[in-house]
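User: We ran a pulldown and think these components assemble together. Before we commit to crystallization trials, I'd like a predicted model of the whole complex to look at. Sequences follow.
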Amino acid sequence: MKLFAFLSFAFVCAAPAFAAPAPSPSPLPAKIDFNRDIRPVLSENCFACHGPDAKQVKGGLRLDQRDSTIKQAKSGKIAIVPKQPSKSELVRRITTKDTDDLMPPPESHKKLGSREVALLQKWIEQGAEYQAHWAYVPPMKPAVPASQNGVDFLVQQRLKAINLKPSPEADRRTLARRLYFDLVGLPPTSAEVEAFVNDKSPDAYAKLVDRLLASPHYGERMAIGWLDVVRFADTIGYHSDTPRNVYPYRDYVIRAFNENKRFDQFTREQLAGDLLPNATLETRVASAFNRLLLTTEEGGAQAKDYEVRYLTDRVRAVGTVWLGQTIGCSQCHDHKFDPSTQRDFYAMGAFFADIKESIVGKREEGIVVPSEKDTAEIARLDGETARLQKAFDAPQPQITAAFSKWQETTLVGLENEANWKPLAPVTAVSVGGAKLTVQPDLAVLASGKSADKDTYTLAFTNALSGVTGLRLEVLPDASLPASGPGRAANGNFVLTEIVATVKRGEQKPESVKFAAARATFEQTSAASTIDGDAKGAAFGWGVLPEVGKAQQLVLELTTPLTLAAGDVLTIELKQNHGNKSHTLGRFRIAATMDAAAARMIAPPPPPADIVAILKIASEKRAVAQQEKLFTYYKILTPELAGLRQQVAASKKAKTDFETKLPRCIISESSPAPRTVRLLPRGNWMDDSGPLMQPALPVYLAVSVKPPENRRLTRLDLAEWIVAKENPLTARVFVNRVWKQFFGMGLSKVLDDLGAQGEPPVNPALLDWLASDFRDSGWDVKRLVRVIVTSATYRQTSITSRELLSRDSENREHARQSRWRLDAELVRDNALTVSGLLVTKIGGPSVRPYQPDGYWENLNFPVRNYDASKGEDQFRRGLYTWWQRSFVHPSMLAFDAPTREECAADRARSNIPQQALVLLNDPTYVESARAFAARIVKEGGADANARLVWAWQQAIARAPRADELVTVRALFDKHLALYKTDTKAAEAFLKNGLNPAPQGADAAELAAWTNVARVLLNLHETITRS
Amino acid sequence: MNLHSDLLQFRQQQQTRRVFIGRAAQGMGAFALASLLDPSILRAVPSPPSRKDKWPGVVNPLHHPAKIKRVIWLSMAGGPSHLETWDYKPKLTAMHGQAMPESFTKGKQIAQLQGAKLTCYGPQLGFKKFGKGGAEICDLFEQIGSVSDDICFIRSMTTEAINHDPAHMFMNTGSQIAGRPSMGSWLTYGLGSVAEDLPGFVVLTSLGKGGQNQPIAARQWSAGFLPSRFQGVHLRGKGDPVMYLGSPAGVSREQQGDVVAAVNALNKKHDVIVDDPEIATRIAQYEMAFQMQASVPELVDASKEPQTILDLYGCKPGDGSFASNCLLARRLAERGVRFIQLYHKDWDHHGGVKDGVTLKAAEIDRACMALITDLKQRGMLQDTLIVWAGEFGRTPMSQGGSGRDHHNAGFSIWLAGGGIKGGIGYGATDELGYSAVENPTNVHDLHATMLHLLGIDHTRLSVKFQGLDARLSGVEGAKLLKPILA
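Assistant: Here's a predicted model for the assembly, 1511 residues in total across the polymer chains.
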């Protein structure tokens, strides 16, 4: 019987424990081991009521503590009488027929099997000895003969004990593919396979391992699992799921693995790279780890609510990434199965309360992350600016005369200014929805919504007699782009028309007629603002390049105007240019009753402090005053315009350069950390809990003594995590790495080494690997090398019936395992075989083809998906844009996690969507066509030779005769079909960005493309064996 | 072949063994042996999917006899105002414009109105009694009113979340933390699906004309920690209804069939050597995918529905409307899909609640009636549960003078179909429509009741996740809504 096809139901999923096929009951072990045999039974069935959660303990009995079990309970009974099962109340209660007494109680839906009952009885018989939970005891390094690989020694030791034999080594083709997929995530080329097959030297395998460990693609391969567990993604996750800048962190991870950064340092940098005494750009980027969580921009989200969400998210992350503890369960109550308490939970959360971030709202752009080359360029640009600035700051004797002249005219202008009376608007309204605020100096500032066209309507009720002119001053302001005075990005605006009317009582409004319009500077005609035509998009008054300072438009009235009390003067400022945000940013209306003033253009008055200096006679000014005045003059004199523009251009060149550089949100510590309280039942609205300071979990006794005279930091947390005595960190990491090379962890619940996890099947092996890893100075490449050079790793994955029935999940490693490639590698494999893969490392995330409309349910803003053009279309899967709420559908189909939560493990499903992706996703259709073009070009002359060649490329072996016949038949049939239907052939070849090769025979290439599709769809092609 | 000699020997031993104990016992299943071994008979249409891969569900047998076989969940996304739909509050009219008494709001969560002055805002639309049961609902929903004797209105619903995204998550998964399975996934995991060549959990979405279309993340139909075969499949209104469903341009159905048959033939040959149970599954999935390429376009094409049916729903096939989706839901139900979820957006009326709900009524009233009527006339209503629910309700207080803010302390939903008492109301909010005061009902209760109708004891459908027996209905105790059960 092919038993497991029925029982595994097409998925292998290690994360949650699904009903696994029940192995035939094996005899009870001679010596019962508490950790292996008893704790899992007690935890699963009893701890919820008789475990660590003190508030829930029933009848005062805690089965996680021996003291509690062997003493007389309130009822007078004793749960466990060591060596006397018949006197133990526990035994009576788990075997009784009386359902009122039976434990676990029927309503819990828990039930002990006969083997479990027998185990408990035998354990009590043997003395009911407890052991500390295996994962909380620091790993001890078992002795391994110096000549042997520890993995092999410890695996074989166990195999001998349970009477299993290791499998033979896999053939070299299989080994090559296995090593390539596991170490670099790419298939070997057929030449690489041949070279390895033909390398007769004794260290051929070791050389290959070394070469792959040194490959820059090794870091990419190792990064995939890490990016899952830290939940790296390009978007924030909640609601609008908008982008944030984080990809430099991904590149940091790749680089760290490639440079074999020690895991302890890797840990410190991510948790506290900003706090390190010698923090660098690199360690700061690493600290983006703390920012990878889900955040929100949703309107109406309550900051307190999300503050707690972020805290809990970060605690869960530390629990999953380093500790393999489900600390998250202690958010509302003490843990039910492990000794972690609610206090531990919030104290851990308090470590992160210093991280600067907006709780609800857009993430900041982050720090600029320049490469070495970029840094040199920035230095060059800074030098250039400094040089120009120095030239500008020089005394400039050539403008002394002009400076004196300017002082005179400005003083005249100031006199003229006395003729103007600023008017206070009683209302100021924007049609386009801008917010118009009247400021204390009677200027109006626009903010908020910025339409491309707008009309501002201002009303005035001043009583004035004999108005001869009106004046519009446009004014700079720090809140405006380029300091204004307009709202366009360059500080400009275009005023297309001014219309003024007066309404007296109930009379019809009368319009105010203008005789002339004059301006201090005219980029475009001031006169066009009073020509009665508000439409002409090409006309209107603008002031580029003289932006960033005040300008004036003076309107002379045809006849003097008198406004009585109660009359309303309305001025409409029409801005119909229509170019992006070309509207007024800050401005003021004034009126004059002086006929000359209405005809005169005087320089706008300088700011008050400059005016004050001007009014002092020059010989009486202090040196500092004189300098300040001169500096002010230098900024506006036309004589220095050239130099000024050079300085500005140089500064702009740097900003422009920097805007193109990568940015990354990072951790930055605030001196005033957020308040953290223990939240009763996890309720964020409940303020009654005690204030919490950062503190290390009490239950994990690590002899790191943090200083007591200051608040603990994330760096203290990191040091505690990588302390030699920490029993969890090395085990957790090694266990995850093991999965990459054997398909399943040594303890299969990768994110829970607690009581509800799984005691490792081979604890000595996990402990040896963990202690060796830790003692090696956390050397990751060494760990990987030890694993892949073991004979255990090199075994064949083809199994025997006996082995399958004895060890269906390959927990004992008497063979290798086989599994479908991870989502990213499925893609990388097809692109490599087809020759399309672009092997560039790092950079912004890319967008592979994606079905139209897949993002239709995203909003705020609505988004279109623009597939990457050029080489970015053909990058490795790990660079795919990770949109959390809509992960790329091809990736999702192959079980890529959404990375909303930390994912220590990936399921491996086998679903129809995978077939649809490989058959129909344009990525795979284009890959097939490119592969077909290679087959035609490089595969030899006749069809069968080409087929053999194609097989070698796709799966590193030659086809068998019957395989050849199958595919040859398909080829012949499709060639004939496409020859009679060349339109179909041509349509088929149009898939994808790249054109089909010039001069190719369309029918032939189309038929080969279908052959290539068959090969790229094979189970063997997407399987690492 | 260039195999290492040891391995060759090893493989040969396996093959010899298997000829006797493997193949002979198993046979070739549903696959046509001849076509797999003889490429000259490559066929355009591979044999029907092997049902060996069919998931029988973990609740097998059922915990108790089921009242229903399937669920159609109408998710009114954005948070419909209960005060302009199903919950009539004359006292709120009387209090219109007055300050909201603090006794109602104290200690409750508030979304966008945080820190604002809270003013009562009377119901903006008229109410009327319908049917023998006298359901008092907004008079714009006349069609729903006409079938109100099949409907149970729950007017005491509450939820924990108050922002769209977490509130949808909570309504769909019973948790505000991402990564938990949605209810459709739980159902297909628990019960399997009757559908032969369709996924067991299908999602449809439609936009409203008012433009308040809040985003909906795919996590809302994610399988979470359950295997991905249980995830909801979004049937899309535009492009391929299922992603990557269409064969590439220039590849006919016959040719696609050839490719699939060749892949399966080669996989089969490979399996002879490596004996990997995943291969049989892979083959079945290719058969299924190829079937879906034909069955899904047939399913979504409602153009052959009789005119009377199109008129009943008030839709044009392919118009992407909520009404079209309701018709599609019936077609999916007929084909055995277990959980059908329709999202209709644009209920987020922070402003203009009067016009907004008026528009929504025009979009959904007839369609909801049609779905109930059509299922009933086919004898399917009795084994279908229809749920109409938003992710939360809206405040009795005004927002910006014409709208209402998010609200989670009390709102309304309705249920219809098998096992549900029609023509009744259940629970009530206080006199201003703020808090559920009579029979307060939470999301876990609703989930537990739905599972109960399907024959599942909600405390017994659990999966070990992070050490806990995770359940759709949560671990804190949920109650069955017994009074509404027929």
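Residues 70-237+320-484 of chain B form a domain with the Alkaline Phosphatase, subunit A fold (CATH 3.40.720.10). That may be worth checking against your pulldown data before setting up trials.

User: Thanks, that helps.
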